[in-house]
């Protein structure tokens, strides 16, 4: 299957999902029910922190430190997407507001599935091969 989303666009989606997760406790309509306790907002904040670190450390256009290869980044997105989908099923305190976490999880998995595995930024191994070829030309 041809991948439709570039790694640059994937990075933009990553940062948007991080912001959506940070604000999700207020969108989940639990404040008036008195459920805005520590446990309620800790999970979305924790997952958004993991996604942010994953994006900042990935070797793609919007990564800052560029240590994580793109395929590993995508696997992390799959895993965190599954966690977001499963949370409303196993933690009943999210109630009817869990739809947002489920939607973000499905979105995260879908974006990861449709993203190209290779960014336009070369890996450290590719840079080393260009700089110091094993078999230099005669």
Detailed description of the structure:
The protein is built from five helices and no strands. It is an all-alpha fold and 138 residues long. Helix 2 (38-56) runs antiparallel to helix 3. Helices cover 62% and strands 0% of the residues. Residues 128-132 have low confidence and may be disordered. The protein starts with 6 loop residues before the first helix and ends in a 7-residue tail after the last helix.
Task: Describe the secondary structure blueprint for this structure.
Layout lengths: L6 H21 L10 H19 L13 H21 L8 H16 L9 H8 L7
Helix pairs in contact: 1-2, 1-4, 2-3, 3-4
Oligomer: single chain
Main sheet overview = none
Mean pLDDT: 82
Distance between the first and last residues' Cα: 41 Å
Share of helix, binned = 55-70%
Count of alpha and pi helical runs: 5
Short description:
Helices cover 62% and strands 0% of the residues.
Fill in the keyword field for this structure.
mainly alpha
């Amino acid at each position: 299957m041809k991948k439709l989303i570039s790694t640059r666009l994937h990075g933009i989606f990553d940062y948007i999902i991080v912001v959506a997760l940070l604000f999700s406790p207020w969108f989940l309509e639990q404040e008036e029910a008195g459920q805005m306790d520590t446990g309620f907002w800790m999970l979305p904040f924790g997952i958004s922190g993991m996604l942010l670190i994953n994006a900042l450390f990935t070797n793609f256009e919007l990564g800052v430190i560029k240590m994580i290869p793109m395929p590993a980044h995508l696997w992390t997105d799959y895993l965190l997407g599954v966690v977001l989908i499963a949370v409303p099923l196993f933690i009943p305190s999210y109630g009817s507001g869990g739809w947002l976490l489920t939607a973000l999880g499905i979105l995260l998995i879908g974006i990861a599935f449709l993203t190209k595995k290779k960014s336009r930024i070369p890996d450290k191994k590719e840079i080393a091969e260009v700089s110091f070829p094993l078999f230099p030309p005669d």
